[in-house]
From TrEMBL:
One of its GO terms (cellular component) is plasma membrane. It is found in: Cell membrane. The chain crosses the membrane at residues 12-35, 47-65, 86-110, 122-140, 160-176, 182-200, 220-243, 255-278, 299-324, 336-358, 365-386, 392-412. The keyword Membrane applies. Keywords: Cell membrane, Membrane, Transmembrane, Transmembrane helix. The keyword Ribosomal protein does not apply. This is Polysaccharide biosynthesis protein. It comes from the Bacteria. It holds the Pfam family Polysacc_synt. It is a multi-pass membrane protein. InterPro entries: Poly_Biosynth_Transport, Polysacc_synth.
């Protein structure tokens, strides 16, 4: 069995990604019982708002540069020097977007601080932490396309372990509260960005001091159309904390964030499988063999059935598990965790169809779908929170994620047709 697993790049890669992502998810879970007992819901709400700010800044600072660098790898007649210059051009863009965003945050740091409920210094450092995370994602992405899952997992888990260790030191030992948790995230992101740069340079994948306007334009052509897409993702997955903080207060934002952590654990499993699946899928889409396409469709339908059936577990054991892990103070998170998990299941289904759009390189319609779904989520949030409180936020999230999946499926079929409705088996 193990020899078969090693021989199958998809299964072997998926196993490594799954293990590393499980470890990655287990580390915040290991931290959760500690943080919820050392931080009040209001303090946990401050941490949640800092993390929400990181998510918001990703759209404007990141420009999906890691995705552009990963997609470049599949271009024909690509030399090693071409790729290192392209990655260098991506980092030049990242430097520019970081400076522009930092300047805007500096000008309005007081307003952002009042709105988010966190100190202005954390607002400014969030821009640096976001840029650092993008650098690490570029390094991880280059390992992913080369199917080097073990290296990917090692860096990913090591970063989380550093985050864990610093958080425990600052929150538990030095009793720094929410500030300690925020500092840990900033230091971990910055430290691993430096490591990622060194690894890119060591592996001959980075040439920063180069002027390639053609590569800058190419990266921007990939990333700029995705700004609405990434902005829509923010509206889908992060804006709820802003609305909850505004409508219900920091304490409720902290309670909701505990439930979100459980949902993110589910999402990490789907992300792990997708990271191994993408190189395997792109190779088969490139070969364009009809029988392989039918096999992919059958596999996808089977996966949909499995994860939809499994989503019910979140409603059954989620409330009990939250009380066990986070304590009675955060027990209200159990009222929403099932719906949040269901939303992440729809996200897992979305991942299986969105890859066809990225393969086609025509991402404009995907951006429209995501931004529409994001604004729908925002509309539902404002409507349902007034009537159902925290539960309303979870209802909105689940509904918006379901609609995004179905709309994306339609766009994927338009961009790269697959035999989704050809059920006759052919060997």
């Amino acid at each position: 069995m193990f020899s078969k697993l090693k021989g199958n790049t998809f299964l072997a890669g998926s196993a490594v990604y799954l293990i590393s992502n499980i470890l990655n998810a287990a580390i915040p879970f290991a931290l959760l019982p500690v943080l919820t007992r050392y931080l009040s819901p209001e303090e946990y709400g401050q941490v949640a708002m800092f993390q929400a700010l990181l998510g918001a800044l990703t759209a404007f600072i990141g420009l999906s540069l890691h995705g552009a660098a990963g997609r470049k790898f599949y271009d024909g007649n690509l030399t090693e020097n071409d790729l290192k210059e392209f990655i260098g051009s991506c980092l030049q863009i990242l430097l520019a977007t970081t400076l522009i965003t930092y300047s805007a945050l500096f000008l309005f740091s007081g307003e952002f601080s009042d709105w988010l409920g966190i100190e202005s210094k954390w607002v400014l450092l969030a821009a640096m932490a976001t840029a650092a995370t993008i650098v690490a994602q570029i390094r991880l992405g280059q390992w992913q396309v080369r199917k080097k899952a073990k290296l990917y997992g090692t860096l990913q888990v090591s970063r989380s372990l550093l985050n864990l260790g610093l958080s425990l030191l600052l929150v538990v030992v030095f009793l720094k509260g929410a500030d300690g948790r925020i500092v840990a995230q900033i230091v971990a992101a910055g430290g691993f960005a430096l490591l990622a740069l060194w690894l890119l340079k060591r592996d001959g994948l980075l040439k920063f001091f180069v002027w390639r306007p053609d590569y800058i334009r190419e990266a921007l052509r990939f990333g700029v159309p995705l700004i609405p897409h990434v902005g829509g993702l923010f509206l889908l997955t992060t804006v709820d904390r802003f609305v909850i903080n505004s409508e219900l207060g920091l304490a409720d934002a902290g309670i909701y964030m505990v439930a979100v952590q459980f949902g993110m654990a589910v999402s990490l499993v789907f992300d792990a499988i997708n990271k191994a699946y993408v190189p395997w899928l792109f190779e088969r889409l490139k070969s364009d063999i009809e029988t392989e396409k039918r096999q992919i469709v059958r596999f996808t339908y089977g996966w949909f059935a499995v994860i939809l059936s499994g989503s019910g577990i979140g409603f059954i054991i989620g409330p009990w598990l939250i009380t066990l892990v986070a304590g009675e103070t955060y027990a209200r998170a159990g009222d929403v965790v099932g719906w949040i998990i269901l939303g992440h299941v729809f996200n897992g289904m979305y991942l299986m169809v969105t890859n066809y759009i990225f393969f086609s390189k025509r991402t404009g319609l995907l951006s429209l779908v995501t931004i529409f779904s994001g604004f729908l989520n925002l509309f539902l949030l404002l409507l349902l929170i007034k009537n159902f409180g925290l539960q309303g936020a979870a209802y909105a999230f689940s509904a918006a994620m379901a609609i995004r999946f179905f709309l994306t499926w339609g766009v994927a079929q338009k961009r790269h047709a697959m035999p989704w409705f050809t059920f006759k088996y052919q060997s």
